[in-house]
Amino acid sequence: MRALRNHGQGRVSLVESQDPVPGPGDALVRIEASAVCGSERGALMEGVDGNTGHEAAGTLVDPGSSRFRAGDRVGLSAVVGCGECDRCTARQELHCRRGPCSAAKSGGWHAELAVVSPSALRELPPGMDAGVGALFTGDALGVPSRGYGRVPSEPAERVLVIGLGPVGLGHVLVRAFEGAEVVAIEPAEFRRDLALKLGARAVGRPGDDIGHRPRLVIECSGRPESIAYALDVVDNGGVVLQSGECHSDVLINPSDTFIRREITYTGAWYYATEDYPAMCALHERGLPLAHMCTHDVDAAHAQDAITDFLGQRAGKVLLRWS
């Protein structure tokens, strides 16, 4: 099979690899489209043995121990649990008592074939294109949808989104679709323009005056200074939803921030099985998820699209494998 390989410094190539063989109970999927996630930036720059693709959709070759059948069209969830603990049986595998883990059993999903845990399979809505399916069952919709479920916004409510990588753009799309007045902050002009196309009412650069304080701020950059800004600019009694990964320390004064101002600080990391019905409902209502995609290319032309992605000149990048 063909698969993408990250060489570091943003360089990628297609390589020939052995077809993966599913283990007992595992599922085998023929990937038709995979999407590049913002979290892959580090691997693309540093290089890995293979690739870190984790958003994909295609056709089921071997259903393994799942309820599906060969030939079914499926999307893939990147996170699975043990399937046995109380959180997993409640369809909350993100909080599996034994620890959530990767659904991948044969390496990254930027490839023609993938072996996955059977619990990763998601039935695609009838007629859905595989490219949209990769966005639909991956981070692009999963994270914003879970975020909306955890912290809903009202129609016409002002919502501030900080950082317009792929997940930030997804938050803009979902909140605007649900009627919020979205203001977005992002240094890259390309992404600001795309946010307007996805429904943002206004966009600005870091440091711009955003006017009155919003009740809800969604922080998607993961930068410590942006997190501090989000906590500072949110209205008293408001909520900051953290959606950008940050592994650095952030200095916060709990008394001034949480006690006296009564701010709630929470997060949305990925989505769980319990969120999938709400995601399907968004699709049925006409959420224009495909508008997030700015690069839809054959995998053979991945390099140019990934160069644009790393240069902040892209929304979602789709790689076609068939």
Q: Can you offer a commentary on this structure?
A:
The chain has helices at 41-46, 86-89, 130-136, 139-150, 166-177, 189-197, 224-233, 254-259, 276-284, 302-310, and strands spanning 2-8, 11-16, 27-36, 56-62, 73-76, 79-80, 101-102, 113-116, 121-123, 158-162, 181-185, 202-204, 216-219, 239-242, 264-267, 293-298, 316-320. With 322 residues, the protein is an alpha/beta fold. The strands form four sheets. Strands 3, 4, 5, 8, 9, 16 and 17 form a seven-stranded mixed sheet that branches. Helix 4 packs across helix 5. The radius of gyration is 19 Å and the shape is globular. The N and C termini lie close together (12 Å). The mean pLDDT is 97.
Shape: globular
* Domain module tally: 2
Spans with pLDDT under 50 lasting ≥5 residues?
A: none
Our count of helices gives 10
- Please, what is the average pLDDT? 97
Largest sheet: 7 strands, mixed
What is the fold-level CATH name, i.e. the topology of the largest domain? Answer: Quinone Oxidoreductase, Chain A, domain 1
The ordered string of helix (H) and strand (E) elements is EEEHEEEHEEEHHEHEHEEHEHEHEHE
Q: Which strand-content bin applies to the residues? A: 25-35%
Protein name: (R,R)-butanediol dehydrogenase / meso-butanediol dehydrogenase / diacetyl reductase
Domain Alcohol dehydrogenase-like C-terminal: 166-282
Keywords: Oxidoreductase
Region (Disordered): 1-25
